[in-house]
Amino acid sequence: MSYLIFNDIRSDDMGVIIERLPPIVKPPLRYNLIELDGNSRTDVETLGYKAYEKIIPIGFKEDNVDYVLNWLTGTGKLILSNEPDKYYNVFILEQIDYVKALRYRKADVPFLIQPYKYAVHEYETTSTALINQGNVDCFPLITIYGSGTVDVLVNSVEVCTVTIDGYITLDCEEQDAKNGTVLKNRSMVGKFPVFAPGLNALTFNGTVTQVTTLVRSRWI
After folding, report:
1. Are strands 182-183 and 176-179 parallel, antiparallel or unpaired?
2. Which of 31, 95, 167, 173 has the greatest count of CB atoms below 10 A from its CB?
3. 6: which residues sit within 8 A by CB, 6+ positions away?
4. In the chain, what are the domains?
């Protein structure tokens, strides 16, 4: 039986039936079309991917419409049973039709899906041999413990230099360097590390006592 998990709550635990799941698709591409004067060719400038909508029809097993509507609202993580090892970051676009849900015990849930999927079972590791399980580049969360000036290298290529007083966390997705809640962007020079699909070796020049990394593998 099909199911969904929204914000760690599973649909069948809520007395909700998933009538069908939408197909697995690639997100739509963002692009600009450039028409050149004096030339019949049209160039395409690609701009990445954009969010898209998945509508999931549900049914109610029990008289619990209010409870379910309170659950299916806002933002969160969505796991679908046709891809149980991955999650989407989503936003429920609009309030479910309450009258229809009460009358017919059915509703359509419109999820706005951010374009990338992430690994469900992925945790911080102290290893420096790191695998991006996905099929596109990912932006890890790296915490480096040590002191002084440290060069950070990915696959033997220096990407940035950080100045550490105890530890520094590089949130490569948010493009921020932090010590706890204190921003330390001025303590970093260079680019935030990016991991290509497959194996990535993280090495350092300088005094480093430990490093923890959340890879954040992702798929398109």
Report:
1. antiparallel
2. 167
3. 71, 72, 76, 77, 78, 79, 90
4. 4-118 (2.40.30.200), 129-219 (no CATH)
Q: How far apart are CA 16 and CA 27, in angstroms?
A: 27
Question: Closest by alpha carbon to 171, among 146, 194, 202?
Answer: 194
**Each residue's pLDDT expressed in tens, for the chain with a length of 220 residues:** 899 999 999 999 999 999 999 999 999 988 888 887 777 788 888 888 999 999 999 998 877 888 888 899 999 999 999 999 999 999 998 777 776 777 778 889 999 999 999 999 999 999 999 999 999 999 999 999 999 999 999 999 999 999 999 999 999 999 999 999 999 999 999 999 999 999 999 999 999 999 999 999 999 9
C-alpha–C-alpha distance, residues 52 and 111, integer Å: 8
pTM: 0.85
Query: Which residue is it, tokens 């290298």?
Result: 153
